[in-house]
Design brief:
Layout: E1 8-9, H1 10-13, H2 31-34, E2 64-65, H3 66-86, H4 91-108, H5 111-127, H6 135-144, H7 148-160, H8 166-182, H9 186-199, H10 201-214, H11 218-230, H12 237-253, H13 257-270, E3 271-272, H14 275-287, H15 291-304, H16 308-320, H17 324-344, H18 346-360, H19 363-376, H20 380-392, H21 396-407, H22 414-426, H23 430-443
Parallel strand pairs: 2-3
Protein name: Tetratricopeptide repeat protein
Organism: Nannocystis bainbridge
InterPro entries: TPR-like_helical_dom_sf (IPR011990)
Length: 454
């Protein structure tokens, strides 16, 4: 039986959840679907013999830390790589290696890790018989980097199998639901995730919760996240940390900063030192005007996690505190890194890189990326980002058209109403702008556009 962890890694790879600019990829997206990829066992398929060089990574024990988890995972990857090198015709070992590498990519969000996944998948498919190979790993990987059409091609292979395994079908259904959500097909995604969660709560309850949060039902999201946490064993620290993180993000988007901080500290207690948790703690400090504390965290993160979104956050904080020269240094460094990512994994990077250019310019580049991002996955987040880019380019009518499309769907966030209010204001529609501002504050009474500036 596929583990529940198998069904949630891509969450941290994908942008993430609730408009957070936390990862190279979005959505919402790789740690959430399969944080235990190293333990993936597809029922009915043989598993590789034990790795001599390293033991397979077990689920992290409660109180684990990020550095140790990564070190253990690296040992497993090293052992699987050595075995694969000795077996040039063994695609199954390469499937497990690709899964472990995908888990690493979900933890680090480093371009080189994503490239290693792609290379191993290419190896495996080159030697696998037609119609076989690491099809689901490839589907998860392509979803994680927002190649939604490519992900669907691999899911189609699963559907065409004469006797598909039940677990494969379940994973494929979750992925298809997530793809639907990325494309703004919220009713389809909601119906499918609701059905899956009803049949197998451990598989899709947390994913369903996050969809509720995106569609204006944060209270239901919190209830489901709590259920998912209670159903997760105390030794499953990675899953528990991820659920606590999502709970914290939902609270942040409601303006409940104290509750959010409580959940984030709980996540850090489960998996200490995970940069994805620490950056959200830093954002809470920022929202509370505790800029020195936020700067200290991001200064550490740019040294350790080495991600451009942290450089952007640090630059924004330096600007806010009057350190313009230091801000300019980080802006230049992050711009170079975003362009590198856009060159290598454009679909994955464009949704986050455009936020850099919206904040620091040029606005023309932000609009270019926002249009491309919306073409790839035209869901609510992408529509709001494109509307913001149109506003930055002085095209308020185009911005309003985008937010009205989003308002015509179940998608609801404070950021959507904020951008709608700005578009109405720019067009001189004061009453409509006031109405949208009221809707924004009803979702998050503490909302500020500057909260989303990094």
């Amino acid at each position: 039986m596929t583990s529940s962890g198998e069904l949630y890694l891509f969450k941290a790879l994908a942008p993430t959840v609730m408009d957070r600019k936390t990862t190279l990829v979005a959505a919402v997206v790789a740690f959430g679907l399969s944080a235990f990829v190293s333990q993936v066992v597809f029922r009915g398929q043989p598993t590789p013999p034990p790795v001599v060089a390293a033991k397979p990574v077990a689920p992290a024990a409660a109180g684990a830390d990020y550095a140790s988890l990564l070190a253990e995972l690296d040992q497993t990857i090293q052992g699987l790589r050595a075995r694969a090198d000795k077996r040039p015709g063994d695609w199954l070992t390469r499937m497990h290696l690709g899964s472990a590498l995908l888990e690493r990519a979900g933890l680090t969000n480093q371009l080189d890790d994503f490239a290693r996944v792609q290379a191993v998948l290419d190896e495996a498919f080159a030697i696998a018989p037609p119609g076989s190979g690491p099809v689901l790993v490839a589907a998860r990987f392509n979803f994680a980097i927002h190649r939604l059409g490519e992900a669907e091609k691999y899911l189609d292979i699963v559907d065409r199998r004469a006797v598909p395994r039940r677990d494969d079908q379940t994973l494929a259904r979750v992925l298809r639901a997530e793809i639907a959500a990325q494309r703004g097909q919220y009713e389809t995604a909601m119906a499918e995730l609701t059905a899956i969660a009803a049949a197998e709560p451990m598989v899709a309850t947390a994913e369903l919760a996050l969809l509720h949060a995106k569609t204006g039902k944060p209270g239901e999201a919190e209830i489901l996240l709590e259920q998912a946490l209670q159903a997760t064993g105390p030794k499953d620290a990675r899953r528990r940390a991820w659920i606590e993180l999502q709970h914290g993000i939902v609270a942040m988007e409601r303006g409940e900063l104290q509750s959010a901080l409580k959940h984030l500290h709980a996540a850090d207690a489960e998996l200490a030192g995970w940069w994805l948790v620490r950056e959200h703690i830093a954002e809470i400090h920022h929202r509370r005007d505790q800029h020195a504390e936020a700067i200290a965290i991001f200064e550490d993160l740019v040294r350790t996690a080495d991600l451009p979104q942290h450089m952007d956050a640090l630059a924004g904080l330096y600007r806010h505190t009057g350190a313009a020269e230091r801000a300019d240094e980080w802006i230049a460094r992050s711009a170079a890194r975003w362009e590198q990512q856009l060159a290598r994994f454009p679909e994955a990077a464009m949704g986050h890189a455009l936020q850099h250019y919206q904040q620091f310019g040029p606005q023309e580049r932000a609009l270019e990326l926002a249009i491309a991002n919306h073409a790839v996955r035209p869901g609510g987040d992408a529509k709001v980002a494109l509307a913001q880019a149109y506003l930055g380019a002085g095209q308020a009518a185009e911005a309003l058209a985008l937010v009205e499309q989003a308002l015509g769907s179940p998608y609801r966030t404070a950021r959507l109403h904020d951008v709608a209010a700005k578009a109405h204001t720019a067009l001189g529609q004061a009453a409509a702008a006031e109405q949208q501002t009221e809707l924004m504050l009803a979702i998050n009474p503490r909302y500020s556009s500057t909260d989303h500036a990094h």
